[in-house]
Amino acid sequence: MLAFALRRFVISLPVILGATLVVFVMVALTGNPVDNMRLLNPPPPDHAIKAEEIRLHLDQPLLTRYWLWLSGLVTGDWGPAVDRHLDIGAEVFSGFAVTFRLVLVAMLVALVLAVVIGVISAVKQYTATDYTATFFGFLFLAMPSFWLAVLLKEAGVFANQNLGAQIFYTVGERSVVVTGGAWDKIMDALGHMILPTVALAMITFASWSRYQRASMLEVLNSDYVRLARAKGLRWRTVMTRHALRTALIPLTTVTAMDLSGIIGGAVVTETIFQWRGAGRLLLDAIRTKDIHLVMAWLLVAAVVVIVFNLLADLLYARLDPRIRHD
What we know:
The protein is mainly alpha-helical. Helix content is 76%, strand content 0%. It has two domains: 2-74, no CATH class; 88-319, MetI-like (MetI-like fold, Orthogonal Bundle), CATH 1.10.3720. It starts with a helix and ends in a 7-residue tail after the last helix.
C-alpha cells in the first residue's frame, strides 16, 4: 500500500506543476501590481517604482519569474509579497488553518446527513419519507451558497435582536475578547462556526445524499444482498456489514472529488461571515495582483486535494475486500 501511495503521489507531481504554470501565467497577465503605486497622490519617484519591480522580479521574463518562484520553494522561499511586511508562508498556513476548520466540520456534518438520509430514502423508496427527503435535497441544491449564507446571517441577526441576547455569532471566526479559560475559548469558536458550517454543509449534503440513495438502491437490489437475506441473516447485519459498506464507495469518490468545490464555497462563506481565513487571503491577493501569494494559496490547496483523493483510494480497500493496492 505504501508503494501505491508513493506511486500516486509521483504521478500527481506533473499535474501540480502544470496547474501552477497555467495559474502563474494567467495571474501575471492580469497586470502589474506596482501600477497601484502610480495611482498614489503624490506618486512615488520612478526609482522607487523600479526598485519595487526588481524586488518582485517583474523586470525578468515570465518563464524566468516562474522558475525563480519554483526553485525558491526548495529552500522554503515562497517569493516576495506585494506587501513587504507580509510573510507569505506563515500567512497562508494560518489562513488555511482557519478555513480547514470550517471545511472539515462542514464535510463531517454533510457526510453524516448524506449517509443517514440517503440510506433512509433508499430503504423507504417511494414513500412520504423518500419524497420529503428528495424535496429538501433538490431545494438545497437549487440554492446558491452565497444566498443561503446571507439568509442564515440575516436570520441570526434577527434572532439576536428579538431575543435580546447573543445567540448566534454572525461576524468573524472568534470574538475579539474572550473572558475565561480554554473551555470558554473553545465554546466561543464553536459558536462562531454554527452558521457558516450550516451554510456550507447544507449545499454539500444535498448532492451527496442523492448519490448515497442511488448507490444504496443498487446495492439493495444486488444478488449477494438477497442471498444474505435468504441465508437468514438479520436485516441490521445485512445493512451494516454488507450493503452499507459497498454503497459508501461511490460517496467516498464524490467526497474526495468535491473537496476543491467545498474549499471554493468556503471562500464565499468566509467572505459573508467576515472570517480571516484562506478566502480573505485569496481575495486580497487577487485584488493586489500578488502573484506569489496566489501561487502559495493554489499550491497548498492542490496538495490538500491530492492527499484527500489518495486517502479515498486507500479507503476503498477497507470498504470493499475485493480491492487491493498491491
